[in-house]
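Annotated sample (chain length 672).
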Amino acid sequence: MTHESFAEDPARTDDENDAVDIGRYRELTRPWRITMAVLTGTATLLAINQIFNLGFLVNYVMLDSRYMYLITGTMLAMVFITFPATRKSLDHVPWYDIVILVVIALIFAYYAFYAERIVLEAWEYAAPPVGIALALLTWVIVLEAGRRAGGWPIFAIVAVLSLYPMYSDRLPDVIAGIGMPIQDVAIFHILGEESLFGIPMQAFAQLVFGFLLFGVALQFTGGGPFFIHFAFALLGHLRGGPAKVAIFSSGLMGSMSGGPVTNVLTTGPLSIPAMQRIGFSRQYAAGVEACASTGGVLMPPIMGATAFVMASFLNVSYVTVAVAAIVPSVLYFFGLFIQIDAYAARNRLEGLPREELPKLRDVFREGWYFIAVFVTLIWLLVYMQREATAPFYATGLLLVINHFTSHRLTLEKLLLMIAATGKLMAELAGILAAIGLIIGSLAVTGMAGTLANDLVYLAGDNVLVLLIMGALTSFVLGIGMTVTAAYIFLAIVLAPALINAGLDPLATHMFIMYWGMLSFITPPVALAAFAAASVARVSAMQAGFQAMRLGAIIYFIPFYFVFNPALLLQGQPGEILVVLVTAVLGVALVSAALQGYLLGFGDLGRSMVSLPARSLIGVAGLILAAPAGGMLTIGHWTLVLISTVLLAAGLGIAVVSRRQQTSVTVEGGAGQ
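Output written by the structure step:
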């Protein structure tokens, strides 16, 4: 395996992704690719002008609503170019999409031109006839954009809930709201600041936009190959090395990719064959890649659009959300790492030969600037606190340095980068625009608070029951919707109920996001696992169940940090330290129990007698990892004592199991 074989060309990776998503993205002709490039450039200039307050378009800072009209119209136009209405228009832009593009241009140009009047005359409550007509038409366009970008589940949910104000007064009292005629609903949705242009699109236009640019630029300047080279050079020679590489590289790639499935398709073609080569089964390799890619999206410093929307909902800085996510994501990846190490030790799986791996020194010499750019980004985010502008500076620095390296962008790759940026922006904007209509419906009817109170009533004021209800709801919505869409819906409906029950607001929102992510590795859907299964050429359900087993700890972590926010680095330093130490030790025990091998002890046995031993050790780990204090009234030392007793009992049974197995082996050998 040569140094070059560890990485793929960004263009090739993008083509592979398109092949997997056949029927989803339109294959554009050259004129339409140029159109997309122009629209992407226009949107980027609009964002830079507004975020940096440059005023180079009109010599004064643009009204926020005018900026939102212009950038949303640009994004919606890109949706109808990128995503076909049906499979019949995969290779061309049909006449009806061209008509829609013209209509979008005219409508949003009108909105932008009359932006001051719309705000000053409060058109969201009393618009002139032309405003009402355009709002109704825009509503239909946004619904269709959501369908194309997010699929039928998004369309169905948004359509039903965006129409909710029209029929809410005729529903049972529990879910009844203030009724409104359709024209009033339309102008509130489209011409107000709480629906289409509410938190989701505001977060996109003001925060997410720059990070999308940075992520795509990082991929197309060679960031993906660098991180994979770096992971192989660092970990490839260890036992189970390729699987550990998958964890490391996917965690880093998660900072750049659009989601778990994209992450799988980027790193999977490299890591899965390498895992199989040293002895990992196909389904195990697929499970590892699915778990690593899903966790990558939860890893700071860039956690995807959901984290930015969360910061907007909580009215806190993005850095606050990213810092809170450090410990849960580290625990998740630590659990994966320990499980892989245990599996490799138990099955005597060695790493790759050093001579076949890239040299760490060579990797750094070729890609040192990626580390420098990341350090610059984190410095700007944390120290300078420039959340909106930091990714633009980092992207500019990356492109400048890249120009003086052997990996500098060619014109062809630059065009591919622009195309990939436009596609990613269009997809996310189409979904967020549609989801915003849900927020508007619940806001205008006053149902957000009512639903929260009803949920608390149904749970009988039992916080644990409410959390379980929330976990199941998040999981189910995560199956049919993107993580961001599911999170936004639940942040409106469920989060207030949990917060009213006394839970920490940040922990509550993180809980919802984590459980929304779990559908990517949990059958029967498990999209990330299924994508990995297609790469590994193995049964999708086998890969799904293996991923569920490997990612088992993530099912408990959200409950833990809700019980005690010290796991989110909130609280006294002493409390945080104790909780972290017990969590790490507990996760190590759970991982050992799942794989049947405990570091420092060895094989926990392979006979039926070993099952009780592994169960006791696993329960001991869960109890030890559980954060004392907070909602749990049990103290740290009590949990440690219970865990120690269970661990001792489990290890005692494991010793007996190993002796039985040894005697059976000896007797079998003597008999032969």
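Annotation: Residues 1-22 have pLDDT under 50 and may be disordered.
Annotation: The longest helix spans residues 636-671.
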